[in-house]
Amino acid sequence: MREKILNILLDKNKEFVSGEEISEKLGITRTAVWKHIKNIKKQGYEIESVTKKGYKIVKCPDLLTPEIVKYNLSTSLLGKEIVYFDSIGSTNDYAKEIAKDVKEGTIIIAEEQVKGRGRMGKYWHSIKGDGIWVSIILKPDIYPYEASFITQIAGASIVKGLKKLGVDSLIKWPNDIIINNKKVSGILTELGAEIDRINYVVVGIGMNVKTIDFPENVKSMATSIRKEGYNLERIDILKEILEEFERLYSNYIENKDKTECIEICKQNSAIIGKYVYVLKGDEKRKVKCIDITENGNLVIINDNNVKEELISGEVSIRGDKNYV
Ligand code: BT5
């Protein structure tokens, strides 16, 4: 019942709803409505109540619950179904478990991950309420070898979404987003596929929003939106990223158009024009980055002065001295 009342208030989009209207709709007394409203307030919602007008939501709590996310999102594919956890191992792991049984666009959100993952078994620090830990389930009709482009779509969406909120960031190809040379966000794209057919793609996005203290092992390379001086809410950032993602992804799938995404990746690249180290297994090579191809691959001049294309997923990039 509490949830039904909350949804009525959220649906009204910041307008008043009278206690009478709610009690008639749900067949409960106005006193019962009032009691539920008290509980909704306890959850962190700010609700204004005015005699003869009723109730109106003034502010939602800082949570990424399905009600709050749906209330803010204006997408038509992403987030129509949302699975939400207060705490989970990894949203990507959960997404892969349920992927074949759910609709494309389903998203998994957690307030905390206790086994958050980066690429190749690395760990991802995901403290409760500090960031955005989300996985998007997609079912694109593309070949498995094309799927790495989806990481570029995620990167472009994050940069563009942050820009809309006044935050400048850069993409450290293939899957890091950086501000002031430190990592604020990482992308982990995983596939469920047969040789020539994709069953699903899970795109995991982790973004540090409110973190102030990072653990010793990531301290020197990590930052958060708040640490960089921006006082933004997680929900506003998530909304912008998902809306951008949907736009760029639909353009790719429906129109086979990758140009805008690649333009964003190139214009906001942290490494094009720079010398970097390419790490692959135990191998470490110093190369110069010169471009990103229309498929999202990185073009480099290698140590033998020969042009080469790198595919995301197989390499990590490090700067001359440090992380960038
Ligand atoms: C990534 O891997 O950057 C991908 C991170 C993806 C996280 C999301 S959260 C939702 C979804 N569910 C998951 O389980 N994962 C995804 P990679 O490029 O391999 O970077 C990993 C490295 O980043 C680690 O080895 C650390 O050095 C560093 N790191 C760990 N936690 C960090 C954090 N919170 N902020 C910045 N750097 C971090």
From TrEMBL:
Acts both as a biotin--[acetyl-CoA-carboxylase] ligase and a repressor. Residues 67-253 form the BPL/LPL catalytic domain. It catalyses: biotin + L-lysyl-[protein] + ATP = N(6)-biotinyl-L-lysyl-[protein] + AMP + diphosphate + H(+). SUPFAM superfamilies: Class II aaRS and biotin synthetases, Winged helix' DNA-binding domain. Belongs to the biotin--protein ligase family. Keywords: ATP-binding, Biotin, DNA-binding, Ligase, Nucleotide-binding, Repressor, Transcription, Transcription regulation. GO terms for cellular component: cytoplasm. Its EC number is 6.3.4.15. GO terms for biological process: protein lipoylation; regulation of DNA-templated transcription. InterPro entries: aa-tRNA-synth_II/BPL/LPL (IPR045864), ArsR-like_HTH (IPR011991), Bifunct_BirA (IPR030855), Biotin_CoA_COase_ligase (IPR004408), BPL_C (IPR003142), BPL_LPL_catalytic (IPR004143), HTH_11 (IPR013196), WH-like_DNA-bd_sf (IPR036388). This is Bifunctional ligase/repressor BirA. Residues 19-38 bind DNA. GO terms for molecular function: ATP binding; biotin--[biotin carboxyl-carrier protein] ligase activity; DNA binding; transferase activity. Biotin binds at residues 90-92, 113, 117-119, 183. The gene is birA. The lineage of its organism: Bacteria, Bacillati, Bacillota, Clostridia, Peptostreptococcales. It holds the Pfam family HTH_11.
